[in-house]
Please model this.
Amino acid sequence: MRKTWNYDLIKFPPDLTLWVEAYPVKTKLPRKFIESWKKKPAWEKVSDAAFTFTDPESNDEIIGVVFEAGFSENYEDLLSDMRQWLLRSDDDLQLVIIVNIQEDRKSLEKNKSHNDAKDRIASLLQECGSEKGKDDHSDILHWLSATTGRPAGTEEQSTFDDSESDAELYTAVKGKLDCNDWVGPLTVELEYWELKDSRPQRRGDKVRVIPAIKGDIPSIYISEAIPLLTVAKWPSLSRVV
Model:
């Protein structure tokens, strides 16, 4: 039985930790096109995250697991990205994990219609907002003007330059920010996809992880991030693969 990633139980040998990384990767894929694809395949693909292994002998970077995330993105586009990775990559890629993030915009707009939410948003814009931010949310400032009788934006002028981004600004924003005023309730589901008989196949069911975990999260195997032929060269890994 193959072991899974569990950082509480499995400690990578010091000589391996230098070669395993997790970060977004950019790679070029062959221009292979399948007629059933609605989305034109990209020549260059950039993942949202990935597990990569750099072979210490050849110095080749091997992409074993790819994460594709979408925020309120069309589900078919996420599937298209998954297919491109699995069908157009080399044999080293073992797994694509779709992170499907959906925002409840109706609940957000309903919350923003309340006067207390408008007041918080207007206060944040006046104290910390850039000119673009004030333009994008001018309706809130006009509401404040109509409510208080003051011209929009003159009650509190922002003390921050549009180009600034420092600890003081972040602290000021954090003190006034209510995330519910800016982002609706989120639902996040994971899907694990792999190749079976040269066709993409989902491993297990969709798993909801936000707002609460619903279902069993499928495993990510160490041998999917590190090629088996490479693992064989590292005796210290043989007991966990």
